[in-house]
Amino acid sequence: MLRESLRLLRSQPKLFVPRVLTTFGYTAFLLYLSGAIYGAALQLQRGELAGIRSLALSLAVASPLLLAADMLTYGMYASLAEQYRRGDVSLRRALRHAIARWRSLLGIGLAGLLFAALVFAVSSLLLAGFVYTGSPLLLLVVLAVCLAGVVIFALLFFFAVPVAVLERRGFLAAMERSLRLGTKRSGEVVVLNLFFVALIFITMLVGVATQFRGALLAGLLLFLVGRLVQAAVYTYISVVAPTAYLLEGEDD
Fold it and tell me: Could you tell me if residue 187 is inside a domain?
């Protein structure tokens, strides 16, 4: 499925467009957020709360919009992978298919965020305990919680978006079907997700290494290259799950 996904991307370069757009959308928001936080901190020192209110409003408005864009993009890739097998790839048609399943996709996205937040909260508390006590046992527990989180996330969510879009199932039915398919192929699914975690970690390092700084032109070019690398990796990740579903899921 990894090679099949690469073949798909090589033969259809326009598939990079949705992820490039969402990646730069996230980047633009994060740059704005950094400036807004800095401005709010300066205002707070002067006893002013306008910056905090503006920051809270920006987060309240942008967060659901970015989540919706992200999940619609994932839905598009499920449709695009299916179109590729038929030999007729259309970004516009894929977007229509994803929009038609927006309720299921939004439910999957919210469930994924809540699950990730739970794992992060538990890991943070345990890590704080490790820092306070210095007990190596707690550090091992943190690693175990993170690993268990990746495994459970893989089983629950790996096939959820392709199932929701291609089988036109609701949120709960898509999650149940994804869990069934993920459990049946647990070894492969978990290994793929660990591979994705490694890729995401590498792209985060690339993002940090290519922050905009230094000479204007060189800094800007480096920044753009870093964001394009992120977009390419996220596109690849977005394509693998529906490709795996189409190759293996339909015979379940």
Answer: yes
